[in-house]
Design goal:
Elements (H helix, E strand, L loop, with lengths): L1 E3 L2 H10 L2 H6 L5 E3 L2 E4 L11 E4 L4 E4 L5 E3 H9 L3 H11 L8 E3 L2 H26 L5 H9 L4 H6 L3 E3 L5 H8 L4 H7 L2 E4 L2 E4 L4 E7 L5 E8 L7 E3 L15 H6 L6 E4 L2 H9 L5 E3 L7 H8 L5 E3 L5 H16 L4 E3 L8 H15 L3 E2 H10 L7 H15 L5 H15 L3 H17 L20 H13 L17 H11 L4 H7 L3 H11 L7 H31 L4 H26 L1
Parallel strand pairs: 14-15, 14-16, 16-17
Antiparallel strand pairs: 1-7, 2-3, 3-4, 4-5, 5-6, 8-11, 9-10, 11-12, 12-13, 17-18
Helix pairs in contact: 3-4, 5-9, 11-14, 15-16, 16-17, 16-18, 19-20, 19-23, 23-24
């Protein structure tokens, strides 16, 4: 049967592994009130916005919105899975791991994943062995032609899948693996009653995760066929949105100050062979928020370094938006003359790469915008100035803005005060239509500038419920209209702690929102908490009535005669009930 940690053990572990002491091993903290404050370890900042609440045993950053429990903090800092983080903390506080509890479906899932990982491991070994046989000569020559040494080929586990239809498939079947599992792993295709190798006639790149497990493959075609690169589809052990190429090497490269994010496997391999640590690539897809958050675990800053063609430069712009939405510092490492990183490092080597200086995101955007215009023409200078002002309207630091303004003055010949007026005008428009939605926190969850009174009251009520106050029958979970918050309230009413609920939340956006809510201040005594809860309930019920009234007014436009008169009477009743609630709150 499947196993999981007993909730009593986790409760005791959280209480014994004091979060203030644990976090202090990584971040210098100073007490201010009942909280401790320090510089956030998850994003660059100069003023402390990272808080640790010893009473709630939670952390929360008011800057990047990272938050969670002591277990989640260790997961982030040590790059561990949940089980590993629990074991790490248990060792630290001298607690023995308990007998695990049953989870009827877990064992089935675990066995399937282990089997698929075994198949991938066997497939990687098979592909690598083929490279050194006569059948693999063409593929080995390809890697040599790309400047790779035997040492690098072995380090990355590169290989070959010869053109034989079912060489790997038959090898795996002979090993005792089922055809069904070979298909689930993505290395075999079954069609029209026949099975064949997915990656035949391709040079092979195993994709290895941060736990050193082969989870998928990328294959480059050696003939004129298409697609040029083929990647494993999503499987029970692989999701291309969630991982990056060379994550295993990122984990080993401790203490790196930045990750260089490139487009292709060969870019990663060539830069690594040249001696550059901390290089990764996306997996045949545009950068995703999930990949951005994964990269943040390995280094405090990301340098985006895609190919020099138009498609690559467009992808850089999109990547910058994603990193900024996730509050991850990012720069652009631009390789000149349209070269991709692989081409550049093979020509100029480590010294040539080290001479390149990354551009901050704003400078890159301005330079890219400048390339679109002929600045010798007055009309073109105007267009460039307007678009540049849109870019600069996002810059928050006055010193940084001043530096860019000086440069823009020299490029356009417009005086500084005119450019500043254009920036102010552009800022209003940009704020109205952001290029990408910011990472949501409790303060901006609805996507609006200000949440409704009812939603804010529901969040405050959930915070009060997390404080272990006895409200008796005064609060009913059915008072919640937000289904997500209602789900949390139900769990609290069932006796689960706020920290336990946080650790159970798999959805990143929901966890960010819940962390923000639970980071609020709770009253010091029950009497004050009851009064606050009553205020929250009044606002929630008033919001429900207001929503009902708005819906009724919308329907009234289509009614006439007796139906309209009845709707008017209902509307008057709702108005009186709303006014009564308002008056009651004032009193």
């Amino acid at each position: 049967m499947a196993m999981r940690f007993p909730s009593q053990f986790l409760d005791e572990l959280r209480s014994r592994a004091d979060i203030v002491q644990i976090v202090s091993h990584y971040v210098p903290l100073k007490q201010n009130g009942r909280r401790y404050w320090g510089l956030c370890p998850f994003h660059n900042e100069k003023t402390p916005s990272f808080s640790v609440d010893g009473e709630k045993q939670m952390y929360y950053c008011f800057g990047c919105k990272a938050g969670g429990t002591v277990i989640q903090f260790v997961m982030e800092m040590e790059r561990l899975e949940f089980y590993e983080a629990v074991r790490y903390l248990a060792d630290m506080v001298h607690m023995q791991l308990p007998q695990m509890e049953e989870d009827v479906h877990y064992e089935e899932r675990r066995r399937e994943k282990e089997t698929l990982l075994e198949i991938n491991r066997e497939a990687a070994a098979f592909y690598h062995s083929q490279l050194w046989l006569k059948e693999g000569e063409e593929y080995l020559r390809y890697f040599y032609a790309r400047g790779l040494s035997d040492k690098t080929i072995r380090r990355f586990g590169l290989g070959a899948c010869p053109p034989k239809w079912d060489g790997l498939t038959q090898y795996l079947l002979d090993k005792g693996y089922s055809l069904d599992n070979c298909q689930k792993a993505g290395v075999t295709v079954y069609k029209n009653g026949k099975s064949y190798d997915m990656f035949r006639s391709r040079a092979m790149f195993p994709i290895i995760d941060q736990h050193s497990q082969v989870i998928a493959f990328g294959g480059r075609i050696m003939t004129d066929g298409q697609p040029k690169y083929l990647n494993t589809g999503d499987t029970p052990v692989f999701n291309k949105r969630m991982g990056v190429y060379a994550a295993n090497l990122l984990k080993k490269a401790r203490g790196i100050k930045r990750v260089i994010l490139v487009e292709g496997y060969m870019d990663v391999i060539s830069l690594s062979q040249a001696g550059i640590e901390g290089v990764a690539a996306t997996l045949g897809t545009a950068l995703t928020p999930e990949q951005a958050r994964l990269l943040k675990r390995f280094a405090p800053e990301i340098w985006v370094s895609y190919d020099g063609d138009n498609a690559g430069q467009h992808a850089i712009m999109r990547a910058l938006e994603i990193f900024e939405a996730e509050s991850i510092p990012c720069k652009v490492l631009f390789f000149p003359d349209g070269r991709d990183p692989d081409e550049y490092v093979r020509e100029f080597g480590l010294e040539g790469v080290e001479k390149l200086k990354p551009l901050d995101a704003t400078t890159y955007r301005l330079m890219r915008e400048k390339s679109k215009y002929d600045l010798s023409q007055p009309s073109e200078r105007v267009k460039f100035a307007v678009e540049s002002a849109r870019i600069l309207s996002k810059v928050k630091e006055p010193v940084e803005l001043e530096e860019h303004l000086r440069w823009l003055e020299t490029q356009t010949s417009f005086p500084r005060d005119v450019l500043m007026e254009q920036i102010k005008a552009s800022g209003v428009e940009l704020n109205a239509k952001p290029a990408i939605a910011p990472r949501k926190s409790a303060a901006s969850y609805t996507g609006e500038n200000a949440k409704s009174d009812g939603q804010k009251a529901e969040e405050d009520l959930l915070l009060l419920l997390s404080g272990n106050f006895d409200f008796g029958q005064a609060v009913d979970v059915e008072d919640f209209t937000d289904e997500t918050l209602k789900g949390y309230a139900i769990k609290l009413s069932q006796g689960k702690s706020a920290t336990e609920i946080l650790e159970e939340e798999d959805d990143e956006q929901s966890r960010v929102r819940l962390s923000a809510i639970l980071s609020g201040e709770t009253p010091a005594d029950r009497e004050q908490a009851i009064k606050m809860a009553a205020d929250c309930l009044t606002v929630i019920r008033r919001q429900k009535l207001s929503d009902e009234l708005a819906e009724l007014k919308a329907r009234m436009q289509k009614l006439d005669g007796d139906e309209r008169m009845e709707a008017l009477r209902q509307a008057q009743t709702l108005v009186l009930r709303i006014q009564s609630l308002k008056q009651g709150r004032k009193e």
